[in-house]
Amino acid sequence: MRTETQPDRFTAPRESMVASQLRGRGIADERVLAAMTRVPRHQFVSDSYHDQAYEDHPIPIGEGQTISQPYIVGITLEALALQPSDIVLEVGTGSGYQTAILAELAHHVYSIERHASLAQGAHSILASLGYDNVTVVVGDGSHGLAQSAPFDAIVVSAAAPQIPPLLIEQLSEGGRMVIPVGPAHAQELLLVRKQLSNTAVRVLEGCRFVPLIGSEGYGSDW
Questions:
Q1: Any bridge partners for residue 181, and if so which?
Q2: Which end of the chain is least crowded, N or C, by CB within 10 Å?
Q3: Do the Cβ atoms of 179 and 160 come closer than 8 Å?
Q4: Domains along the chain?
């Protein structure tokens, strides 16, 4: 699935990130912790941010987007409870960092990104690291990716005003989605489960994400 990276000067900061920011704050899924120990987060940010790559905060990646803080990535992936056979949709590829972790945990990841420059950059990094179970698509992520549905899990990396019905439709029965919902400065990270064509919703965490731009999200002027 990927080529193992060799130990380098970022190995210790990455292990410390997992121990203090993830395990130390209650994230206990060993598959998630192991994947986040393996994936080299510094390779998904520009050289000028390498020394901040394993700190507990978002990092700019261009096009007004950010790479989420490690804790938010961890709590999102733990809530999804991914299995090795799962097919996953990621809305908002961004840098490709979360995509790589999803690829460690699931059978195949479809990731959709509206910024072509970010999609191309993420595709290049993921390919260079040996991830061959990822498909990156440029498009309106609020529409999902109907041609590849249904998905066992969907993760949305941008805030929506409400849960997009099109994404619910693309979940398999028993499927899970994690999505931030709310206005610009006060969102909640939600876990949505599809059960007998209905949805059960649980609040995971308060959060702040960039907006989901698209016909099922916010307008481009937000």
A1: 160, 188
A2: N
A3: yes
A4: 61-207 (3.40.50.150)
Strand 187-195 with 198-207, pairing: antiparallel
As annotated, the active-site residues are 68
Report the distance separating Cα 39 and Cα 203, nearest Å.
27
- The pLDDT score that the predictor gives to residue 185 is 81
Cis peptide before 13 (omega within 30 of 0): no
Q: Supply 125's token pair.
A: 């990094």
Identify the pLDDT of residue 5. 62
Distance, in Å, from the CA atom of 62 to the CA atom of 155, rounded to the nearest integer, reads: 21
**pLDDT of residue 17 exceeding 90:** yes
Nearest 5°: the CA angle 60, 64, 70 is 35
Listing from the earlier edge strand, what are the strands of the sheet with 134-138?
Answer: 134-138, 108-113, 87-91, 151-156, 171-181, 187-195, 198-207
CB distance 207 to 72 below 8 Å = yes
Residue 178: beta bridge partners? Answer: 155, 191
The number of angstroms, rounded, from the C-alpha of 39 to the middle of its chain's C-alpha atoms is: 13
